[in-house]
Design a protein that fits this description.
By secondary structure, the chain is of the alpha+beta class. Helices cover 46% and strands 22% of the residues. The structure holds adenosine-5'-diphosphate. Adenosine-5'-diphosphate is lined by residues 489-490, 493, 517, 519-522, 530, 535-537, 542, 547-553, 576.
Length: 585
């Protein structure tokens, strides 16, 4: 018996073949038992990860219970057959050549082992027919024990068994094919669910928790382990089990993970770690031993090891575990797990980028707010003194022109500083949700305040508001700023003789404000950008007017803070309509 596992046998296969496939195999096994005269007959299928999975057993109840659905490593059995007597389709290993532990690979009766005469069946003799498909691919075994006549099979009996072996190969092939198709459909469906969940999660942690459950269910694992790696490619933080509970891996296992995860990702290598199975390419024998020891300690029979990453970078690894009940992994499951790890990797990278961008945006906002704050006092001082200078009656002509220019420049600077403070002041504080503002009354007030300016510009400015209040959620001062900005722009970019109409109405769940003008309009290529900070259209008719390019950025920031929307429709030369929708309060 190989020494490296301390597991109680037998472990079990996870896949239940459909009943029709099993019935066909059962009939063949019964035929062998009946016609060739064996009391114990079994048929097993070779699984992709190196296990042999017993699918049907005909024989004594205790043998059936032990063997059905049990798993045993395939390779030692194939090695054992090297020394078998070759009977064509059948291989016979006499008991004196048997090196396998029969309790792991089969079942023995309690019949006496001593003084078995030549030609008689010894309880530890082994007779199997390796099953192959038409291309010579190994599929599994038909195995026979306990001949009813107590004899090693005669030539005639071997012929009968050869025919059954051929039938068994066909039935096993059909069974494996059906299982494979059913599995592909199941895995494709659950992979699609997982991708949808990963995309919809707000943070990397939430994503791992939500997907954790889905991955475990989809791949029929007992649990999902995730160990993240830091930028230095070493294990970072604890091991997350099923996206929740955090455990620390032993130092030896952490070191192995750190050393091999990146390489596994580069090779896109998914490995099965379980006793007696083919060795995964990335680990050496003693390293596999370390991992197996750890797994045995936590009661895991087999682990599917899958690196998670995106592009050239490995972000971590996931391990899907199975206990003794259902310990084998198919090729499709391994491939699906790697697909999922790639999707998770992409989603993790996106989260990482979003977090970095947010940090940059926050930093920029804080910096702009600080600079604007520092500028405010000196600009006020410059403006104040420029006003005094400009008003001095003793000033000469050229000095008066200079003072007026300083005043204009100072005023412009003060506007930019004020706008920047509003823009980045609004990023800082959390929105005072719960505020309620009658948008109709606010619009009427802004129109009234701008009436003098409108008439000086020769523009007809009107408000169309319903008699009953249209209440929007938001802060009074901020919404005032928003409406004033939109009306100010409409007046600014409309030539004398034009009209500006401000309308407020309830629109379903929303309060709607529109500011429509028949002014210069906005070119289609500028429209997507007018809400960006400092964006001003290249239209000379627009640049001729004073402005900072911050008004609409502020408007959008305010609207989004209250979970609303702002949009523009415009045609150059015909006018623009800005529409704001805010949730009703
Ligand atoms: P500005 O201070 O330049 O007006 P805004 O952010 O308020 O900055 O507007 C950005 C740009 O959008 C303006 O420079 C202008 O080109 C265009 N724009 C805004 N409102 C109107 C409008 N009502 N009609 C035409 N163009 C407009």
């Amino acid at each position: 018996m190989p020494e490296n596992h301390a597991f109680e046998r037998p472990i079990r296969g996870s896949r239940g073949s459909d009943s029709e496939s099993r019935a066909a195999l059962q009939a063949i096994a019964e035929g062998v038992a009946e016609i060739a005269g064996f009391d114990l007959v079994g048929i097993s299928a070779a699984r992709d990860d190196g296990y042999l999975h017993t699918l049907v057993v005909v024989g004594p109840e205790d043998a059936r219970r032990t063997l059905i659905d049990s798993l045993a490593p395939t390779q030692p059995l194939l090695d054992q057959l090297e020394v078998a007597e070759d009977w064509g389709a059948l291989k016979f290993v006499p008991h004196d050549r048997l090196v396998l532990d029969i309790d792991t690979w089969g079942w023995t009766s309690d019949a006496p082992r001593d003084n078995v005469p030549p030609g008689a069946w010894h309880p530890e003799d082994m007779l199997v027919a390796p099953l192959e498909d038409d291309d010579g691919r190994f599929l599994g075994f038909l195995g026979m024990e306990l001949p009813r006549d107590g004899l090693v099979p005669s030539a005639a009996k071997r012929e009968v068994l050869t025919i059954y072996a051929r039938q068994a190969a066909q039935a096993v092939r059909a069974t494996l094919e059906r299982e494979r198709l059913a599995e592909q459909v199941r895995l494709a469906n659950s992979a699609a669910d997982i991708v949808r969940m990963a995309a919809g999660s707000d943070s990397a942690d939430e994503m791992l928790i939500r997907c954790g459950r889905e991955v475990t269910k989809g791949l029929r694992a007992d649990s999902l382990w995730v160990q993240m790696l830091g930028s230095d490619r070493r294990c970072q933080g604890p091991l997350y089990v099923d996206g929740g509970e955090a455990v620390r891996l032993p130092a030896g296992v952490r070191a192995l993970l750190s050393a091999h995860a990146q390489r596994a990702w580069e090779r896109q290598c998914v490995a099965v770690l379980a006793p007696d199975r083919p060795m995964p390419g990335v680990l050496a024998a003693d390293q596999v031993e370390t991992v197996l020891e750890f797994l045995a300690g936590v009661g895991v029979e087999s682990l599917l090891f899958v690196p998670i990453g995106a592009g050239a970078d490995c972000f971590g690894v996931m391990g899907l575990t199975r206990g003794r009940h259902g310990a084998e992994w198919s090729e499709h499951e391994s491939a699906a797990a790697l697909d999922i790890a790639r999707d998770l990797g992409r989603a993790l990278r996106e989260h990482q980028l979003v977090r970095e961008l947010r940090e940059v945006a926050d930093y920029r906002g804080r910096m702009v707010a600080t600079v604007a704050h520092e500028l405010k006092n000196p600009v006020s001082a410059v403006l104040g003194y420029a006003e005094i200078l400009a008003g001095d009656p003793e000033l000469g002509d050229s000095a008066r022109t200079a003072a007026a220019a300083i005043l204009r420049g100072g005023e412009r600077l003060a506007r930019v500083v004020d706008d920047l403070l509003v823009l980045h002041g609004t990023t800082e504080a959390a929105p005072a949700l719960g505020g309620r503002v009658d948008l109709g009354a606010l619009a009427a007030e802004v129109v009234e305040l701008n009436a003098a300016m409108a008439s000086a510009a020769g523009v007809d400015l009107r408000a169309v508001v319903p008699a009953e209040p249209v209440v929007a959620q938001g802060d009074d001062g901020e919404l005032d700023h928003l409406v004033t900005n939109l009306v100010g722009n409409a007046l600014k970019y409309t030539d004398p003789g034009g009209t500006v109409v401000v309308t407020v109405a309830a629109a379903g769940e929303d309060a709607q404000l529109t500011v429509a003008d028949d002014g210069i309009g906005i070119a289609p290529e500028d429209q997507p950008h007018v809400f960006e900070e400092f964006y001003r259209s290249a239209d000379p008719a627009a640049t001729a007017k004073p402005g900072t390019g911050l008004g609409l950025a502020i408007a959008r920031r305010v609207v989004e803070r209250y979970h609303g929307r702002i949009e523009v429709e415009s045609e150059p030369g015909r006018g623009s309509t800005f529409r704001v929708l805010l949730p009703r309060g």
